[in-house]
Design goal:
Layout (H helix, E strand, L loop, with lengths): L20 H20 L5 E9 L31 E9 L2 E2 L3 E3 L7 H21 L5 E3 L7
């Protein structure tokens, strides 16, 4: 009745990250700063970076389907772990290239010291000197606590 007579459609709730007013203000300030830099520099000299890779298969119960004549047995099972196995991988890209990947050993917690010494000083700066030369460039990273 709701669908046919009232023309209503069902919509699912969406999960989103909770953003406080402070979070929104910080993001707005960062965006404005980035836009100012973008107007004075070319986008080709922006290095974007991120990290993380989870090994466990993602499961979408709404869209994942197996089309079959008979009900599948064990092939329709997707295992889920409370703490899935993962490999920490860091990488960076820009319009004209990519950094080497950095694989972080299992059990190593990325704090500011590990991030600065193991990634920024050991990988990013030498790569950027070779890649960008003496030209100004912008290092754009996410808001992870170690950064």
């Amino acid at each position: 009745m709701a669908k046919t007579e009232l023309g209503l459609k069902p919509y699912k709730f969406q999960k989103v990250q909770l953003l406080t007013e402070k979070n929104k203000l910080v993001r707005l300030q960062r965006c404005r700063k980035l836009l100012r830099r973008a107007s004075s520099q070319r986008w080709e000299r922006f290095l974007f970076t991120d990290e993380l890779f989870t090994v466990q298969q993602a499961h979408n119960s709404q869209n994942d389907r197996i089309w079959s004549v008979d009900a599948p047995s064990t092939s329709a099972i997707v295992e889920h772990r409370q703490h899935p196995k993962s490999v920490m991988v860091w990488g960076g890209i820009c319009a004209s290239g990519k950094t080497p990947l950095v694989f972080v050993y299992e059990g190593v917690k990325i704090n500011h010291t590990v991030y600065r010494r193991g990634i920024l000083e050991a990988v990013v700066l030498p790569w950027a000197k070779k890649h960008f030369g003496n030209v100004n460039w912008t290092f754009q990273q996410d808001s992870a606590p170690a950064h």
